[in-house]
Design goal:
two-stranded antiparallel sheet, six-stranded mixed barrel
Protein backbone atom coordinates (compact mmCIF):
# COMPACT_ATOMS: atom_id res chain seq x y z
CA UNK A 1 0.00 0.00 0.00
CA UNK A 2 1.47 3.34 -1.05
CA UNK A 3 1.73 6.36 1.27
CA UNK A 4 1.54 9.85 -0.18
CA UNK A 5 3.11 12.76 1.70
CA UNK A 6 1.43 16.16 1.33
CA UNK A 7 2.02 19.20 3.52
CA UNK A 8 3.81 17.05 6.08
CA UNK A 9 0.89 14.60 6.41
CA UNK A 10 0.82 10.96 5.30
CA UNK A 11 -2.20 9.98 3.19
CA UNK A 12 -3.61 6.58 2.23
CA UNK A 13 -6.90 5.25 0.81
CA UNK A 14 -9.37 2.78 2.32
CA UNK A 15 -12.40 0.98 0.95
CA UNK A 16 -15.62 0.72 2.96
CA UNK A 17 -18.78 -1.27 2.33
CA UNK A 18 -22.16 -0.76 4.00
CA UNK A 19 -25.47 -2.37 3.00
CA UNK A 20 -23.96 -3.58 -0.27
CA UNK A 21 -22.55 -0.17 -1.33
CA UNK A 22 -18.77 -0.16 -1.64
CA UNK A 23 -16.76 3.03 -1.84
CA UNK A 24 -13.08 3.98 -2.05
CA UNK A 25 -12.19 6.83 0.31
CA UNK A 26 -9.05 8.77 -0.64
CA UNK A 27 -7.25 11.43 1.40
CA UNK A 28 -7.27 9.50 4.68
CA UNK A 29 -4.46 10.45 7.07
CA UNK A 30 -2.28 7.66 8.40
CA UNK A 31 -2.53 8.47 12.13
CA UNK A 32 -0.69 6.20 14.54
CA UNK A 33 -1.80 8.51 17.37
CA UNK A 34 -5.51 7.87 16.76
CA UNK A 35 -6.87 4.90 18.68
CA UNK A 36 -9.88 4.52 16.37
CA UNK A 37 -10.22 5.13 12.64
CA UNK A 38 -12.58 7.93 11.64
CA UNK A 39 -14.24 8.65 8.28
CA UNK A 40 -15.81 11.93 7.16
CA UNK A 41 -19.58 11.54 6.64
CA UNK A 42 -19.42 13.75 3.53
CA UNK A 43 -16.86 11.41 1.89
CA UNK A 44 -19.31 8.49 2.09
CA UNK A 45 -22.63 10.22 1.30
CA UNK A 46 -23.65 7.59 -1.31
CA UNK A 47 -23.45 4.95 1.45
CA UNK A 48 -26.27 6.68 3.40
CA UNK A 49 -24.56 6.33 6.79
CA UNK A 50 -27.11 7.14 9.50
CA UNK A 51 -27.68 6.27 13.15
CA UNK A 52 -29.69 3.11 13.78
CA UNK A 53 -30.75 1.40 17.00
CA UNK A 54 -27.61 -0.70 17.49
CA UNK A 55 -25.17 2.19 16.82
CA UNK A 56 -23.38 4.23 19.47
CA UNK A 57 -22.30 7.82 19.77
CA UNK A 58 -18.77 8.19 21.11
CA UNK A 59 -16.63 11.15 22.11
CA UNK A 60 -13.27 11.67 20.45
CA UNK A 61 -10.59 13.76 22.11
CA UNK A 62 -7.68 15.29 20.31
CA UNK A 63 -5.68 18.42 19.78
CA UNK A 64 -8.81 20.22 18.55
CA UNK A 65 -10.82 19.35 21.64
CA UNK A 66 -13.66 16.88 22.04
CA UNK A 67 -16.18 15.97 19.34
CA UNK A 68 -18.91 13.38 18.89
CA UNK A 69 -18.84 10.60 16.31
CA UNK A 70 -21.23 7.87 15.22
CA UNK A 71 -19.75 4.39 15.80
CA UNK A 72 -21.35 2.05 13.31
CA UNK A 73 -20.86 -1.56 12.27
CA UNK A 74 -20.39 -1.80 8.50
CA UNK A 75 -19.99 -4.75 6.12
CA UNK A 76 -16.23 -4.40 5.77
CA UNK A 77 -13.20 -2.15 5.74
CA UNK A 78 -10.46 -2.96 3.27
CA UNK A 79 -6.98 -1.50 3.50
CA UNK A 80 -4.72 -2.93 0.81
CA UNK A 81 -5.27 -6.69 0.90
CA UNK A 82 -6.36 -6.61 4.55
CA UNK A 83 -10.13 -6.92 5.10
CA UNK A 84 -12.01 -6.55 8.38
CA UNK A 85 -15.58 -7.86 8.10
CA UNK A 86 -18.36 -6.53 10.35
CA UNK A 87 -16.07 -3.67 11.31
CA UNK A 88 -16.85 -0.86 13.73
CA UNK A 89 -15.96 2.50 12.20
CA UNK A 90 -16.43 5.99 13.58
CA UNK A 91 -18.08 8.60 11.34
CA UNK A 92 -18.20 12.37 11.84
CA UNK A 93 -18.25 15.57 9.83
CA UNK A 94 -14.72 16.89 9.28
CA UNK A 95 -15.82 20.20 7.75
CA UNK A 96 -13.12 22.16 9.55
CA UNK A 97 -10.42 20.06 7.84
CA UNK A 98 -10.89 20.44 4.07
CA UNK A 99 -9.03 17.88 1.99
CA UNK A 100 -9.03 15.30 4.80
CA UNK A 101 -11.56 12.48 4.52
CA UNK A 102 -10.59 10.60 7.65
CA UNK A 103 -7.98 9.07 9.89
CA UNK A 104 -6.64 5.53 9.63
CA UNK A 105 -5.93 4.72 13.26
CA UNK A 106 -4.27 2.15 15.44
CA UNK A 107 -7.38 -0.07 15.45
CA UNK A 108 -6.68 -1.11 11.84
CA UNK A 109 -2.90 -0.69 11.86
CA UNK A 110 -2.44 -2.93 14.91
CA UNK A 111 -5.01 -5.57 13.98
CA UNK A 112 -3.43 -5.89 10.52
CA UNK A 113 0.10 -5.85 11.97
CA UNK A 114 1.14 -3.19 9.49
CA UNK A 115 4.70 -2.00 9.12
CA UNK A 116 5.20 1.61 8.07
CA UNK A 117 8.24 1.98 5.81
CA UNK A 118 8.96 5.69 5.46
CA UNK A 119 12.03 5.12 3.28
CA UNK A 120 9.85 3.45 0.65
CA UNK A 121 6.68 5.41 1.58
CA UNK A 122 4.76 2.14 1.83
CA UNK A 123 2.83 0.01 4.29
CA UNK A 124 2.88 -3.72 4.32
CA UNK A 125 1.79 -6.51 6.63
CA UNK A 126 4.20 -8.61 8.60
Amino acid sequence: MRIEERDGLLFVSVTLSHKGITQLVDDVILDTGAAQSLIDMTAVEPMDIAAEGQDDFVFMSGIGGQEVALRKRIDFVQFGDYVIENAHVDFAYLDTHPGINGLLGADILLSGRFIIDLDEMALYQR
